[in-house]
Design a protein that fits this description.
Helix content: 25-40%
Number of strands: 8
Distance between the termini: 33 Å
Structural class: alpha/beta
Largest sheet: 8 strands, mixed
Order of helices and strands: EEEHEHEHEHHHHEHEH
């Protein structure tokens, strides 16, 4: 992170007096192409996206990113510090919008949303509620618009929330974070990036987060169910969705559905990729950025 010139980290007060951590990095050239608001996935944090931020700076963008409400260095919300709890996706969307407002004068030019996984849930909600001004397009990496899991997981989570266990980690999921073995992982083929991300959490235990809570899962299911054709048809912006061919965490069928229900959606699939496209091997990352670069000309066009 120290190599990112002009890096500014700050905290943002949000709903219920909860604070989140945010980071702004300015483009160092004469005139930025615009600004990107980068929304990570569940369990993720700003440091993990240093490489992605550098990629965006090289493309001429200012960058704002956040530790979402309830994770990273933001205030934790679960029954324990490791419990992956989020009280409301609407509040997380509001909180991210407040981070944008805090540095609005620095987010010059047209704004693009770029998100991964759970960040895609938050960014789609932001588009549907017009939470962030001056957004001209949104790119989604393996967005969480559906979750692959056992039948009935949503109903079980809902019932456990009703019995007061909303802040507890969901049944059968880990309650503490432990480094995962590279072999058999669901997120990347790249051993170096995988090891780097494990090392970051070992060096900074406060970043560690375990399984999602019953409340997180219940809120996720309700939010994803709210992405109806009627609402989606109102998004009159260029949308790019990039799916991972080897996806095992989110439901790629939801990408097909939603891309078909927004007026200006493009769907691309990266062959051979696991879930974390932006943390994959170089060839897969290059494929993602090729799709992004080809698409970005649409929202950034002078007459767009």
């Amino acid at each position: 992170m120290a190599a990112l010139l002009g890096l500014e980290t700050f905290r943002v007060l949000g709903p219920d007096d909860i604070t989140i951590r945010a980071a702004f990095v300015p483009y160092q050239g004469d005139k930025p192409r615009g600004s990107v608001i980068l929304a990570p996935g569940r369990t993720e944090y700003i440091e993990k996206y240093a490489e992605t931020i550098s990629d965006l700076l090289a493309r001429g963008f200012n960058v704002l990113t956040v530790d979402h409400r309830g994770q990273g260095w933001s205030d934790r919300l679960g029954a324990t510090a490791h419990a992956g709890h989020l009280d409301s996706f609407a509040k997380a969307t509001d909180h991210m919008a407040r981070a944008v407002a805090a540095v609005s004068d620095k987010l010059t030019g047209k704004r693009i949303l770029l998100s991964h996984s759970m960040g895609g849930t938050i960014c789609l909600e932001a588009l549907l509620t017009n939470a962030i001004p001056n957004v001209v397009g949104a790119a989604f990496s393996a967005p969480m618009w559906g979750i692959l899991g056992p039948p009935g997981m949503g109903l079980l989570a809902k019932s456990l929330v009703a019995t007061g266990k909303g802040k507890d980690v969901a049944p059968s999921l880990p309650t503490t974070w432990q480094p995962e073995a590279f072999e058999g992982n669901q997120v990347t083929h790249d051993p170096k990036r995988f090891a780097r991300n494990n090392a970051l959490m070992l060096e900074q235990p406060a970043l560690q987060i375990a399984g999602p809570t019953n409340g997180w899962l219940d809120e996720a299911m309700k939010t994803m169910a709210s992405f109806t054709p009627a609402r989606l048809s109102q998004i009159n912006l260029p949308i790019l969705v990039v799916s991972a061919e080897g996806e095992t965490i989110v439901d790629n069928a939801a990408h097909v559905r939603i891309c078909g229900q927004v007026p200006h959606g493009q769907l691309r699939v990266v062959a051979g990729s696991k879930h974390e496209l932006l943390h994959e091997v170089d060839a897969i990352r290059a494929a993602f950025w090729a799709h992004f670069d080809a698409w970005a000309d649409l929202p950034l066009a002078e007459n767009a």
